[in-house]
Specification:
about 15% strand, 23 helices, alpha/beta, single chain, 25 strands, 5-stranded parallel beta sheet
């Protein structure tokens, strides 16, 4: 049996498909006699755009659509005409709701005119491999490009079996894709490491598939969706190291190679250990498979070592939604011992100590998405994040001390939040300009599988599929309800002046950050100097001596005034209550601490952070 696995646009063009890499190896291990090949559809589309436009549309344009177009379905819109053999189909329905500046409309129009030609070329290249089965992985905006090629394959070779899988096929979405597209023979709902090899064996033997869990198949003209096994997950032992040889071989000779810096995409865990107990209210990741599973540190390190040495790539992105806490003990120290010049990106929970942040940095982790999301404890509680504003501020400050990039967005729009949760933070944002800013302020959207979606009584009772689904699919509204992952709903939480102030304050923070620093310098006789070089603040050195030095250092972890007084007393330092109160008020006025209620957190870093200047 010959199997071709395809990762179509809009998979990131500068890294191989993790799903294809894993399933290629899994098929080779589990299906006797199967020969698997790969079609790197994202790479081929980037090459096609480059060639057909005389390099006017580059991989940079591709990645802009891939990164910025998800919430608007722009990548799917590009391929809508190609799916229906109607190049001008809904051409007039340019998504007017897309904010200006997200993607150049002229570039999208050019891509759209080229989509049909690419579909024909992709189809010919896949069929030249003489496959018996073609499998498409689909996440976010890969569905319509995959459907377009799948339809063309079945028109030319009806005997080829077409299989869909991936995150876009989870739950009711997979059945909706299947029953609305007769040319899709099977849809795998859920993880594929067990189901896909079973399906391939049944196809080869001509045996029925009615007992394959979660599989969608055709009984005559009737679409059948086999029942899912409740919370069925694949154990780490059955998740092989991905096979990236074919992708890197293609990239090495690709004309887009000069535009890109490829990176490795690897996986240490699946699910979310925090979400198992406290599912963040807005998060739709993991679908029904929240159960946390992690590869042992030894195995993760062995796979990382093999892939780095084989492909000579030092940039590494992990697919984990949350890092295994055991990795702080068993993986990071060993990574630090290797001495490799790796640049690794992880996602982790923000309840980390300064020592753990130091471990991340020493291990070659250069960027972490800590899931900060907000600097207000009440809003964080609404999110079910399990951290406070003080925790998040400590992470930002301590990450600067260890030159660790923090990736985050400031989220708002939660039911039950109020403007009183935002004004105190907005007023103090000028004091934070030396810390790493969020990418922006973003109103939350409604995602399938999130608690807000599953429990409308939490605040989003009225919902409808995002508008772009109606632009890219020709199915009834009721079908869109099952097919969609993103939903629109009535806005909740803040609006008006406070929303505008939040957006503007974060824009100012981002603009001033490259030119700002606030750090500590040790002086003689135990003096501590806070050197303030933040834009918008007077250039000033605040010299702390005596109990004030001890007190400021004690605020690293965040303390109330009473807690700070008790701490000083334990150190046999007696401070008049009025003096302590006045001093804390002075720190607040000078922006040297962040205050939430009666709690204060020191803002000065202990090291001078590296700054990336963005001006000329």
């Amino acid at each position: 049996m010959r199997v071709c696995l395809a990762a179509m646009p809009w998979q990131a063009v500068d890294t191989p498909s993790l799903a294809v890499g894993i399933l290629r190896r899994r098929v080779a291990e589990a299906v006797a006699g199967a020969q698997s090949t790969e079609y790197p559809g994202a790479l081929r589309w980037a090459e096609y755009l480059l060639a057909e436009t005389g390099a006017a549309v580059t991989p940079a344009h591709y990645m802009l659509v891939a990164d910025k177009g998800i919430g608007h379905g722009l990548g799917d819109w590009v391929f809508t005409g190609a799916l229906r053999d109607e190049p001008e189909r809904r051409h007039s329905e340019w998504p007017a709701d897309v904010p200006q500046g997200v993607v150049d409309p002229a570039v999208l129009e050019r891509m759209r005119t080229l989509a049909a030609g690419f579909v024909a070329e992709a189809t010919a290249e896949i069929l030249a491999l003489r496959p018996d089965v073609v499998g498409f992985t689909s996440t976010f905006m890969q569905t319509v490009p995959s459907l377009a090629v799948a339809r063309a394959i079945k028109r030319q070779r009806p005997d080829v079996k077409v299989v869909f899988g991936g995150a876009n096929c989870d739950g009711p979405m997979g059945h909706a894709i299947h029953r609305n597209h007769r040319f899709v023979d099977f849809v795998v709902r859920g993880e594929g490491e067990i189901v896909l090899p079973t399906l391939l064996e049944r196809i080869e033997a001509g045996k029925p598939v009615a007992d394959v869990p979660g599989l969608c198949w055709w009984d005559g003209e009737q679409s059948v969706a086999n029942a899912m096994v409740a919370h069925q997950t694949v154990p780490p032992a059955l998740i092989p190291m991905p096979d990236y040889d074919a992708w890197f071989a293609a990239m090495d000779v690709s004309p887009v190679r000069e535009y890109l810096s490829p990176y490795l995409f690897i996986e240490g865990s699946r699910g979310c250990w925090w979400g198992e107990r406290h599912h963040c209210t807005f998060c739709g990741l993991n679908g029904p498979r929240m159960g946390f599973r992690s590869k042992p540190a030894d195995r993760f390190l062995a796979e990382l070592t093999h892939l780095v040495e084989r492909h000579r790539v030092l940039d590494v992105m992990t697919a984990d939604n949350i890092m295994d806490m055991a990795y702080y003990r068993h993986l990071l120290p060993r990574l630090a011992e290797t001495g490799w010049d790796l640049r690794i990106q992880f996602e982790a929970k923000a309840n980390v100590s300064p020592q753990q942040i130091a471990q991340l940095s020493a291990a070659g982790v250069c960027a972490v998405q800590f899931g900060i999301e907000s600097l207000n404890s009440r809003v964080l509680k609404i999110m079910n994040k399990g951290v406070t504003a003080a925790t998040n501020l400590r992470v930002l400050r301590d990450s600067d001390d260890h030159h660790l990039t923090v990736l985050w967005n400031y989220l708002y729009g939660f039911p039950d939040e109020s403007e009183h949760d935002y004004w105190p933070v907005i007023e103090q944002m000028p004091a934070l300009v030396h810390l790493q800013p969020p990418a922006g302020a973003t109103r939350i959207g409604l995602q399938r599988f999130s608690p807000y979606f599953e429990k409308p009584e939490l605040g989003f009772a009225h919902r409808r599929p995002a508008k772009f689904y109606g632009r890219v699919y020709d199915v009834p509204e009721a079908e869109l309800e099952d097919l969609a992952y993103f939903f629109e709903c009535d806005d909740a939480g803040i609006a008006g002046g406070v929303e505008k102030a939040l957006v503007e304050a974060i824009a100012d923070w981002r603009a001033n950050h490259p030119f700002s620093s606030l750090f500590r310098m040790e002086g003689p006789d135990r003096t501590l100097t806070l050197r303030d070089r933040r834009r918008g603040w007077p250039r000033r050195d605040h010299v702390l001596t005596g109990w004030r030095r001890d007190a400021y250092e004690a605020l690293d972890r965040g303390r109330t005034e009473e807690s700070l007084r008790r701490f000083l007393a334990e150190q046999e330092i007696t401070v008049d209550a009025a003096d302590l109160h006045d001093w804390l008020s002075s720190l607040r006025r000078h922006g040297l601490v962040f205050a939430e209620g009666d709690e204060f957190v020191a803002l000065a870093t202990t090291d001078v952070p590296v700054r990336m200047r963005t001006d000329d």
